[in-house]
Write a structure and sequence with these properties.
9-stranded mixed beta sheet; 22 helices; binds pyridoxal-5'-phosphate; 4 domains; Aspartate Aminotransferase, domain 1; 7-stranded mixed beta sheet
């Protein structure tokens, strides 16, 4: 059997290769230019786009939510989450880099000591070098540093303080850009230098350049080349800004990249000038006035983002994760990293040994590592070939022969003039002379006076095997070096994986009723008075154990917990893309009727004629479940701790709703999601409900509304119409609309604050018995309230009136509202 990889076993490797059968005889060794997309990725994307209606995310909440979910997925891939990093979508690495420089506040002070500097490595990609043009306009010191001096500086830590330095406002801000991996030869820079840089390890170099050193340091990591075949763990290394392009990882889609910003560094990106569609809270077209959005990525994503490409990203991750076995460190990217490293090492070893029959070495390798350490070397080999007489073979000549053999490689300087010059020993003077002689970047003039102007680059992706190395070596031996090489040993390595780390599923939960603006919150004055009204009674208590599913009506009393009624909105159904399913997309959800049985400590689910299913309520059993971190909300990006309830109930729910691959997720008891409020003060813990702990509905108001509805086809009785509003507390009074004026309310012995009116959307148009949609009552609500779609009031729990421990709330309790003076 011919070995294919040192890392991925034979069968797996064959499966992977099947995805690229379109290559036929072509040997693709240009992964650093663009990865190749696997065939099934396109099938998945196609199916998704053919079956779903995605709209402009500025107009469609669902599309927007799917995109939020994908932001989380990206962060998850880098082992971090939205509380530490923020994803800004861009068109690619180049735009991400530009965005940082344009927005970066260097904070240049008059005195030279506090001046901020822009420092870049000479070995950077052209897209980084070009940043100095933006830096020039900002009037900062622009400094380049050689790879050698950079590596030396970041290594010297002995005299530095170990504490992390807090940025200080009165200092200048300096920015260093360096690549995580050199795209020229695959050398990996030390990622752990971020801390040293922040501690000022580059200051001595600044001093040598006579620049101010009293500055806060920020690190911009060009990760474009590195992340294509490596695991970037942002929980371990924490640069301030990370730039990448997705086609370099997945091959598809193009035109999409990201700028990932450390949340601690957000404030330094304060100089963004341009604003485009979707990035402002207000703009006046005929006056110089605009206010940019508060949220970082909303402020930075000018115009409509590539939403369909972003939707495709979800499938990129899915496909990659299903295709690549987690052989090394139980991680897909680590596996790819080792696989490609060994291919490159094999090629490197063979090229080193390659000799003409007169003993002359045939290859000149442009390396910064000896290919023994995967931490220092990626899957790229750069070299040139020499003839028997010692003269160079031009890369263009090589390129022609490679084309003939159907081998795709890259020749030239690969947009990295710095590394090219360093390895080819080209001085600035000779570069200029070559340019004068007619040589331009990317042309065919491969030798000037016998000296190469560029090199040959071979780069490997996860889909490459030893076959590809052999094809290349074969071609070299046939065309340029008349010899036969022994292959280096190629045995499958044995990797021992440490314990299965738990796979965290990131799930995005969308707010059901959040199709409108957030509810307005009323400021409560201190001068509240007591309005006694004996005629108001609590007549119904409902809980909705599963978000968007049917109500469970309480017969006598129910316990109040820290997040609202016990078991209210503690579960939710999520789709295979991780987005929470709601009645808006699936009205049939209301036909799933949950029932809490406290005696048997279980949640029962009923639906039409299906046999019911039982799930235990005891959260201690959750070890059987998968832990999931649920990520939600565009505005607040809460992370919700929850866990998956297992396959059996997942299948049941999928069957009940006729949608494949649904999962039931339960909020963890120690999750501490809070209510959205402008001020920190008085924030309440929340279940998976949208806005507040409780929703109160006045049946008199419902009755009043019923009288206003003209549509003869609308035949709801009072009860059905009340059910559409999905309230937790239904009260009966003689007067309609009084609840809108309330500031506080006491029900039985429990006190609640009124948090505002509940914004409404099409969900009230779903008949909660059948799942049928109607136009009413939304039309009449809109008509009656002058376009304000509000109905019912939100409540949050304050405590018992007498200060005793909160207990149960009883049906038929007295309801006593408190209004502001004078009402
Ligand atoms: C590819 C690459 C870039 C540029 O990426 P674009 O997708 O062309 O914007 C920048 N830096 C490095 C190291 C690269 O490999």
């Amino acid at each position: 059997m011919i070995p294919l990889s040192k890392v991925i076993n034979h069968e797996h490797m064959l499966d992977i290769c099947k995805e690229f059968s379109r290559l036929r005889e072509k040997c693709y060794l240009e992964n650093a230019g663009a990865a190749l997309y696997p065939a099934s990725l396109l099938a998945r994307v196609n199916e998704d786009l053919m079956n779903n209606v995605y709209m402009n995310p500025h107009s469609d909440k669902y599309t927007k939510d799917c995109i939020e979910q994908i932001r989380c997925l990206i962060l998850k891939h880098f082992n971090t989450n939205p509380s530490n990093y923020t994803v800004i979508f861009t068109s690619g690495t180049t735009q991400s880099l530009k965005l940082v420089l344009e927005s970066f506040k260097f904070n240049c002070q008059e005195d030279e000591f506090n001046h901020g500097s822009f420092m870049y490595l000479s070995d950077n990609h052209t897209s980084v070098i070009g940043l100095r043009e933006i830096a020039k306009e900002k009037n900062v010191d622009i400094i380049h540093i050689s790879q050698e001096e950079f590596l030396q500086s970041v290594k010297n830590v002995s005299h530095l303080k170990a504490r992390s330095v807090q940025p200080e406002n009165n200092k200048g801000n300096s920015l260093i850009v360096y690549p995580a991996q050199n795209n020229f030869n695959g050398y990996k820079f030390p990622l752990n230098s971020t801390e040293n840089i922040k501690n000022g390890c580059l200051n001595s170099y600044l001093k040598k350049q006579l620049c101010g050193t009293n500055c806060n340091w920020y690190v911009l990591l060009d990760a474009a080349s590195y992340v294509s075949t490596n695991m970037l763990d942002l929980s371990v290394h924490q640069p301030d800004f990370v730039c990448l392009s997705f086609y370099k990882i997945f091959g598809y889609p193009t035109g999409l990249g990201a700028l990932i910003v450390n949340n601690k560094a957000i404030s330094v990106l304060s100089e963004k000038k341009y604003f485009g569609g979707g990035t402002v809270d207000i703009v006046l077209s005929n006056e110089d006035f605009h206010v940019k959005r508060e949220n970082l990525y909303e402020r930075f994503e000018d115009g409509t983002i590539s939403f369909l490409s972003i939707i495709a990203l979800k499938h990129c991750y899915d496909t990659l994760y299903s295709l690549i076995p987690k052989v090394v460190h139980n991680d897909v990217m680590e596996t790819i990293s080792h696989h490609t490293f060994y291919l490159a090492q094999d090629l490197y070893t063979q090229l080193c040994k390659l000799k003409h029959d007169n003993g002359m070495k045939a290859a000149v390798l442009y390396v910064d590592s000896d290919f023994t350490d995967v931490q220092k070397q990626g899957g790229i080999v750069a070299f040139n070939l020499k003839r028997k007489d010692g003269t160079f073979i031009g890369y263009a000549e090589f390129q022609h022969m490679a084309d003939l053999f159907n081998i795709s490689i890259r020749t030239g300087c690969f947009c990295n003039a710095g590394t090219c010059q360093r390895h080819l020993n080209l001085s600035n003077k000779s570069m200029k002379a070559m340019y004068k002689a007619g040589h331009k970047c990317g042309d065919d003039l491969d030798l000037v006076n016998g000296k190469p102007t560029g090199a040959i680059r071979v780069s490997f992706g996860y889909y490459n095997t030893y076959h590809d190395v052999d094809k290349l070596i074969n071609m070299i031996c046939k065309c340029f070096v008349n010899t036969i090489l022994d292959k280096p040993p190629r045995m499958l390595n044995i990797y021992k994986n440490i314990q299965q780390t738990q796979r965290n599923v990131t799930i995005y939960d969308r707010k059901i009723e959040d199709c409108l603006d957030e509810g307005t919150y009323i400021n409560i004055n201190n001068n509240t008075t007591y309005t006694y009204n004996p005629k108001i009674v609590l007549t119904e208590i409902s809980i909705f154990p599963i978000k968007s599913c049917g109500a469970f009506k309480i017969k006598s009393a129910w316990k109040i917990g820290s997040k609202g009624f016990e078991y209210d909105r503690e579960w939710m159904v999520v789709k295979d893309n991780g987005v929470c399913l709601t009645q808006k997309q699936c009205p049939q959800m209301c036909t799933i009727r949950p029932e809490i049985n406290l005696e048997s400590k279980s949640l029962l689910l009923h639906c039409h004629d299906m046999p019911s299913i039982t799930i235990p309520l005891d959260q201690k059993l959750k070890n059987d479940y998968q832990e999931s971190s649920l990520c939600r909300s565009k505005v607040c990006t809460d992370i919700i701790k929850g866990f998956d309830c297992g396959d059996e109930v997942a299948d049941w729910v999928s069957n009940a709703l006729g949608i494949s691959f649904l999962r039931l997720i339960r909020q963890s008891s120690d999750d501490n999601r809070t209510q959205k409020k402008k001020s920190e003060e008085g924030k309440k813990l929340l279940s998976l409900s949208n806005q507040a702990q409780f929703l109160l509905i006045n049946r008199a108001t419902v009755n009043w509304l019923k009288g206003k509805i003209q549509d003869p086809l609308f035949d709801d009785d009072l009860e059905s119409l009340t059910d559409r509003f999905r309230g937790n507390l239904i009260i009966d009074t003689t007067k309609e609309l009084i609840e809108k004026e309330w500031k506080k309310v006491i029900i039985g012995e429990h006190e609640f604050n009124v948090e505002g009116q509940c914004p409404r959307c099409q969900m009230v148009c779903i008949d909660q018995k059948t799942g049928q949609k109607t136009v009413e009552p939304l039309r009449t609500i809109s008509e009656q309230f002058g376009g304000k779609l509000q109905f019912g009031v939100y409540l949050s729990y304050v405590g018992t009136v007498n200060g005793s421990r909160p207990s149960s709330l009883n049906i038929f309790s007295q309801v006593t509202p408190l209004c502001v003076d004078g009402s």
